[in-house]
Design brief:
Length: about 350
C-alpha cells in the first residue's frame, strides 16, 4: 500500500487544461475516486493512488499527454514511444540525449536538454510556443518525469544538487521541498535540474519487459510516487515504519542506524529542506488520511494507530495538519460536507 499523499493544489492544477477544453472536472475527479467535496477543504490531500488514477483519467479524456496545457497536443502514446527508444540506450547520458532528439521531432518542442559543464550536469527545460500553464503544473511535471524516469532506468535516484525555476516562487512553493529534496532557486534565468556528472555514466539496467510493465502506470506513477529510497528523508521514513502503536525511535538511534552522527544527519535533512520532526509529523498525517478513507475504522482507533494515546491530542494535531477535524475530513471523503 502507498500511504503518500498529494496536496489539493496539484489535484486542482492538473485539471486546469481539461477545464479549458470544456471537460467536467467533477466527473474527472469522481472517475478517479476523489470526492469533489473533499477539495473544499483548503488543506485537503489525496492519496498517491488517487492522484495517479486522476492523471490517467485526464490523459485518456483529453487525448493529450500535455493535459491541455502545452503549445500543442501530445497524442496518447508519445511518452511510451520515447520510453521504447531510450530503454535500448547504454548509459543515462545516452538516455537524455536520445530523449531530447525524439522530442525535437515535434514542433513546437517541449523537452529538456542535457548540458555538461565541469563535473556538473544540468537538464534545462526547452519549451517553444505559448503554453497554458497558470499553476506551473506542466513545467513541474516535465522536470519530475524526466528526472524520475532517468532514476528508474539506472536503478538509483539521481541526487539533485539544485532545482531552479524561471518564475517567481509560487504560493505552493513549500511543496517543492518534498518534490526535489535539494536547494531551490526561483526567478532564475532558466528552469533546470543540476546534478553530479557521475550519474551520466551509470548504465541503464532496465529491459523491454520491465519497460512494458512500467508503462502500465507511467508516467502517472512518476508524478505521484517519488522514489525516496536514496534520500535521507526516505531512509528515515523506512526506519520509522508505519506502526506507530509502539514508541517511535529517537533521532540518535536513527543516526546510528544510518551510520552517521546526529549533527551530520541534521545538516543532511536541512539540505533536503526538512527536519526529523517534520518527517514524523508528515508520516503520521499521511497514515491518518489513509485510515480515514476506511470508514470501518473508528476515529479513536485511528488516533491509537498513528501513535496518540489521547483522541483529543490526535484531533488537535490533525486539525493543525489539515485545517479540519478527522470527522470533517471523513465527511468530505464521503461527499457529506455541507
Amino acid at each position: 500500500m502507498s500511504t503518500l499523499t498529494v496536496s489539493r493544489h496539484f489535484v486542482e492544477a492538473s485539471l486546469s487544461g481539461a477545464e479549458r477544453l470544456g471537460l467536467d472536472s467533477r466527473a474527472l475527479l469522481q472517475e478517479a475516486g476523489i470526492s469533489p467535496d473533499l477539495l473544499r477543504i483548503e488543506m485537503a490531500r489525496v492519496s498517491s493512488d488517487q492522484f495517479s488514477k486522476l492523471m490517467q483519467v485526464i490523459w485518456q479524456r483529453t487525448g493529450d499527454e500535455f493535459m491541455g496545457m502545452g503549445p500543442r497536443r501530445a497524442r496518447s502514446g508519445t511518452f511510451a514511444t520515447m520510453c521504447a527508444l531510450v530503454v535500448g540506450c547504454q548509459t543515462l547520458e545516452e538516455v537524455y540525449q536520445q530523449a531530447f532528439r525524439f522530442s525535437r521531432l515535434f514542433e513546437p518542442m517541449v523537452s529538456m536538454e542535457l548540458e555538461i559543464f565541469g563535473d556538473r550536469a544540468r537538464l534545462v527545460t526547452r519549451i517553444e510556443g505559448s503554453i497554458h500553464d497558470p499553476d506551473y503544473f506542466l513545467r513541474e511535471s516535465i522536470l519530475v518525469i524526466w528526472h524520475r524516469l532517468g532514476s528508474w532506468l539506472i536503478g538509483q535516484p539521481v541526487e539533485l544538487e539544485k532545482a531552479e525555476f524561471d518564475y517567481p516562487r509560487p504560493d505552493h512553493g513549500d511543496e517543492y521541498r518534498h518534490i526535489f529534496h535539494c536547494p531551490l532557486a526561483f526567478e532564475s534565468d532558466c528552469t533546470a535540474l543540476t546534478f553530479s556528472k557521475r550519474f551520466l555514466s551509470a548504465p541503464v539496467i532496465r529491459d523491454k519487459p520491465e519497460m512494458r510493465q512500467f508503462l502500465k502506470t507511467s508516467p502517472a506513477d512518476l508524478l505521484s510516487r517519488p522514489d525516496e529510497s536514496n534520500t535521507w528523508t526516505g531512509r528515515i521514513r523506512g526506519l520509522i515504519g508505519r506502526d506507530f502503536s509502539k514508541p517511535m525511535p529517537d533521532f540518535d538511534w536513527i543516526a546510528q542506524e544510518l551510520h552517521t552522527s546526529p549533527q551530520t544527519l541534521r545538516r543532511r535533512l536541512k539540505q533536503e529542506n526538512t527536519s526529523f520532526q517534520e518527517i514524523k509529523d508528515l508520516l503520521r498525517r499521511d497514515m491518518a488520511i489513509y485510515y480515514l478513507a476506511h470508514p470501518e475504522i473508528p476515529i479513536n482507533d485511528i488516533a491509537e494507530r498513528v501513535g496518540f494515546t489521547e483522541p483529543s491530542t490526535f484531533h488537535r494535531a490533525f486539525k493543525k495538519w489539515t485545517g479540519v477535524t478527522p470527522g470533517a475530513w471523513r465527511e468530505g471523503e464521503r461527499g457529506d460536507l455541507i
